[in-house]
Description:
By secondary structure, this protein is mostly beta strands. Helices cover about 5% and strands about 40% of the residues.
Amino acid sequence: xxxxxxxxxxxxxxxxxxxxxxxxxxxxxxxxxxxxxxxxxxxxxxxxxxxxxxxxxxxxxxxxxxxxxxxxxxxxxxxxxxxxxxxxxxxxxxxxxxxxxxxxxxxxxxxxxxxxxxxxxxxxxxxxxxxxxxxxxxxxxxxxxxxxxxxxxxxxxxxxxxxxxxxxxxxxxxxxxxxxxxxxxxxxxxxxxxxxxxxxxxxxxxxxxxxxxxxxxxxxxxxxxxxxxxxxxxxxxxxxxxxxxxxxxxxxxxxxxxxxxxxxxxxxxxxxxxxxxxxxxxxxxxxxxxxxxxxxxxxxxxxxxxxxxxxxxxxxxxxxxxxxxxxxxxxxxxxxxxxxxxxxxxxxxxxxxxxxxxxxxxxxxxxxxxxxxxxxxxxxxxxxxxxxxxxxxxxxxxxxxxxxxxxxxxxxxxxxx
Length: 417
């Protein structure tokens, strides 16, 4: 199942909003995004840069699949880790490292050894899907695979495991000056029936409210609910105490209609995730919230209960991991979600357990992961033909060329073999 999605669409790097922790020399950019509007730009000068996120509360030894899109504007002068999987205590577990020649290396950070060989050189100013697959623990060994645009570039094993995995750092460490963008991060585990393996090609966007369907929560100052309630929970960057709604009345609910998306008509919708920024009126005895999603006017799923335990504003959960509390892969008829379903989708929240004190909601949003029709077939399957050889690669490439409608001895971008 999908644990976490992040396209930096909340347009903020404050610790605890869309990531746990930030380093230095990173910023949100609207200039170079893979999906949606924003991306993370890391442009360090001999210092650490990037963000950290904990997707497990404790180090884990089960299978996990992580995807990060990267866009290299300029490469580091020396080898540097740009994607690091850590334990819950932030001990290094595995990493993808970038060379000055823009080749990638896959590393076992438990034993500090490279796995496999270097990749082909990545082009400048081009987004690539970088994925790391971790196999479940077998005795004292876990498999590790690195992929670029869906194709393996290195695979091997981490042996003599001393700790598991549970955190992700994207950015850089201390290798001089360079300029890299990161976007559309996804973390899957192997559980469930959907998104239980490689995330694959995908774009992430956020859809926000543009109208109130049902409104029963009070305004922040105690004013009566009205049809403009959605305006207090629809901001791009959560503004916490500036605008919010509150309630402590059992079953009081607000349901918001959603803006239209820019998703192409022929895209495949992979999933939706509902997020919220919330707090309580006091350090205890706050009312309990559940988030909900509706398709075609029908309520299809509620989140697990969320009980704020302080006046501090938090995202999705009161403690790590702050993964999305409500993820949906199917519509109200248990069929794959379509663009038509998104046009009728609504999200909301209600009080599932009333208590002495108010629960507050500052912002709610829906992340949507989708795959464009062309991207689903592979946009640039073998960017550097010299880096690959052998019958297996030829057969794979031949098949993709036929699917894409190219002559058998051409690459998917139309260039000659």
